[in-house]
Design goal:
Strand content of chain B: under 5%
Largest sheet of chain B: none
Order of helices and strands of chain A: HHHEEEEEHEHEEEEEEEEEEEEEE
Largest sheet of chain A: 16 strands, antiparallel, barrel
Number of strands of chain A: 20
CATH topology of the largest domain in chain A: Porin
Largest interface: A-B, 44 and 25 residues
Oligomer: heterodimer
Distance between the termini of chain A: 137 Å
Structural class of chain A: alpha+beta
Number of helices of chain A: 5
Shape of chain A: elongated
CATH class of the largest domain in chain A: Mainly Beta
């Protein structure tokens, strides 16, 4: 019995122990999450402690930095002595952060935004600029001319008695517009293009056939003509450091020859002096810059070649039956030395040579060529020219030029009705073989009036004279009387009134006294003719 | 008639070679002093007056823009800078330029 009791007791104890164990295990298992949270919290506390330590460090650094900014780099106490000091510093950090760097950061951010925006815009602007290969400029001139002519004419009466009488005539207020579109492109560092297109016309002048007229010219489908005055390219290269070169080709700047720019109130606009040549020319040439070699400022030696054909309308090379006489080529060779001597000056020696002067390209109604010659003789001209602006630092600009011409007439051309000759011409002759030497000279000055209130106006006077056989080669000149072709004397007076830097007015008077008739062909006839021109012009350049 | 012409031609020749041209002051300073840094292989880029238009040069000097790139005030007096400024403005990209075949 006792034994059973003992057994029962052990069993009960074991049961209770097992139960307790299971219960404990269950309780422990149930308790497990709480433990994890505790561990986590512990971790967090440690982390926070670390953070606080870091913040402390940073705070100390920030304090140092801000103190530096505030004091401009003066020493900052390193040790923080008390809690009070820490709270004071904290307070200061707060205010400094609010006032200084925070504000600065906002500004920097906004600036950054602006810069980003601007560079996006600039990309477009730059792209547009890069695509704008050609820079354009405009010159617009309106001028009105009042011409008058007076000539003394010799007449012979039926009975052989000579008498003289005077003729006079007037052209009142002939007005014209001249529009120039100037172009320039710096294609590369050493490749430059220059060009100019022009419309030059009298006010509502009407050379067209109805229903087109000048007043609907631009509004009517007609021709595609645009006049091209200049279009040339300069290629600069330096085969030897002492001798930079330029190769040029195209339609050259050979109009408005020097000293035309005095009257025009511009910089030099032509390669040649006007006394040598003032026409448009096509050709090719090479310039040697001599400054490095000679030490003479802006000195250069230029060789230019030009060629003209009179009448290529038939394009004879396209036809089987080539015949003579339609393509009259004329070659022109020019050698020019130029240099600056005294300050703002230009000295030029120009030699012009045309070995075979060709006949004029004329075909009158009812008159036909009877016998033509593609060579009427040779022609050469040597020109010296000098101009100086603000001469010796004064208000005077002046110029002078002299040209000597040698012409050898040799050959003639005849026109007539059917086989009957009516007129024969040669180079400055009526067909004879002759020397036709001549000379011309010019001189002039311009005074820069130092009146600031009147925008520094200028007055100028010019004189030129040419001998009997003088051939000016000035068909492209700016002045309507082509005064440099005069076989006789010519005077010119002008007043320039600048209004703004882009607008000026010129008032001028030209007087030409012709002693001989002028033409490259035919013997000059004695004349006693005076032509005057008074003009007013308005110039806008931009 | 012959003699006056010869005299006139001789006069022209003399006037031409009377004295050799010297560069204007502004240009001299520009080439010598600005050019001491602004040259090929130098400290700064080569440039000419056409780098800017007239108003841009005026602004460059008026606002002393060079100071931000490099302080050059020690090398240049006020009159030096004025002369260079005049030279650069007179030959700026939009100034009235001489034109001829083969002319820069």
């Amino acid at each position: 019995m006792r034994r059973i009791k003992m057994r029962t007791f052990v069993f009960a104890f074991l049961c209770a122990a097992t139960y307790l164990f299971i219960a404990c295990c269950t309780v422990i298992a149930a308790e497990q999450p709480d433990m994890q949270q505790i561990l986590k919290k512990l971790d967090e506390v440690i982390q926070r402690n670390n953070d606080l330590a870091k913040q402390n460090e940073e705070l100390a650094k920030k304090v140092q930095r801000l103190e530096k900014q505030v004091t401009g780099g003066a020493a900052v106490p390193q040790k923080i002595k008390s809690d009070d000091e820490i709270s004071i510093l904290k307070e200061r950090v707060k205010t400094l952060e609010q006032q200084g760097p925070a504000k600065e950061n906002a500004e920097v951010a906004s600036l950054k935004e602006d810069v980003g925006e601007m560079s996006a815009i600039l990309q477009n602007v730059e792209r547009k600029t890069l695509l704008d290969r050609v820079q354009m400029g405009v010159e617009l001139r309106t001028r009105c001319d009042w011409f008058s002519l007076r000539e003394r004419v010799k007449t012979k009466s039926l009975f052989g008695k000579t008498s003289y009488h005077h003729n006079s005539d007037k052209v009142q207020a002939l007005c014209s517009n001249r529009f120039r579109l100037n172009m320039k492109a710096e294609i590369a560092d050493n490749l430059v293009f220059n060009g100019r297109m022009v419309v030059y016309k009298n006010w509502t002048d009407d050379p067209y056939e109805d229903p087109q007229n000048d007043a609907n010219r631009a509004r009517y489908p007609g021709s595609s003509d645009v006049k091209l005055e200049r279009a040339y390219v300069d290629y600069f290269f330096t085969p030897h450091p002492l001798l930079p070169l330029a190769l040029s080709f195209g339609r050259f700047p050979t109009t408005d020859g020097m000293p035309t720019e005095f009257r025009e109130n511009t910089a030099r606009k032509s390669t040649y002096p006007a006394l040598a040549y003032d026409y448009e020319t096509d050709g090719a040439g090479v310039s040697f810059m001599l400054e490095n070699l000679t030490g003479l400022k802006n000195s250069a030696l230029r060789f230019l070649y030009g060629r003209s054909v009179s009448d290529n309308d038939y394009q004879i090379y396209r036809h089987a039956d080539w015949y003579d006489g339609h393509l009259d080529e004329q070659d022109v060779y020019v050698a020019q030395f130029e240099t600056e001597t005294i300050k703002n000056s230009l000295f030029i020696i120009n030699y012009f040579y045309s070995p075979e002067f060709s006949q004029p390209d004329v075909s009158f109604k009812g008159v036909n060529p009877v016998k033509l010659s593609s060579n009427l003789g040779s022609y050469s001209k040597l020109t010296f020219f000098f101009e100086a602006k603000k001469f010796l630092d004064s208000n005077f600009d002046w110029f002078a030029g002299y040209a000597q011409q040698w012409a050898r007439a040799d050959g003639k051309a005849t026109w007539g009705l059917g086989p009957i000759p009516l007129q024969t011409i040669g180079l400055i002759t009526n067909g004879e073989s002759r020397e036709r030497n001549a000379h011309a000279w010019q001189i002039g000055m311009r005074y820069n009036i130092p009146w600031e209130t009147l925008n520094l106006p200028k007055v100028g006077v010019e004189f030129n004279t040419g001998s009997k056989y003088w051939l000016g080669l000035n068909g492209g000149a700016e002045d309507p009387l082509r005064k440099l072709t005069t076989r006789g004397n010519a005077w010119d007076f002008y007043y320039i009134q600048p209004i703004t830097s882009h607008f000026m007015i010129r008032l001028g008077h030209t007087y030409v006294d012709q002693r001989h008739s002028y033409s490259p062909f035919g013997t000059p006839e004695r004349l006693n003719t005076q032509i005057r021109n008074t003009y007013l012009l308005l110039d806008a350049n931009f | 008639m012959r003699r006056p012409i010869v005299v006139f031609a001789a006069f022209l020749l003399c006037a031409g070679f009377l004295s050799s041209a010297r560069a204007e002051e502004g240009e001299q300073i520009f080439t010598a002093k600005c050019g001491s840094c602004h040259r090929s292989g130098g400290e700064a880029a080569v440039f000419g007056p056409t780098k800017y238009a007239i108003v841009q040069w005026e602004r460059f000097f008026k606002k002393n823009k060079h100071a931000k790139l490099k302080d050059i005030s020690a090398q240049f007096s006020e009159t030096d800078l004025q002369a260079v400024r005049n030279y650069l403005a007179a030959h700026a990209a939009d100034s009235d330029k001489p034109q001829a075949v083969g002319l820069r």
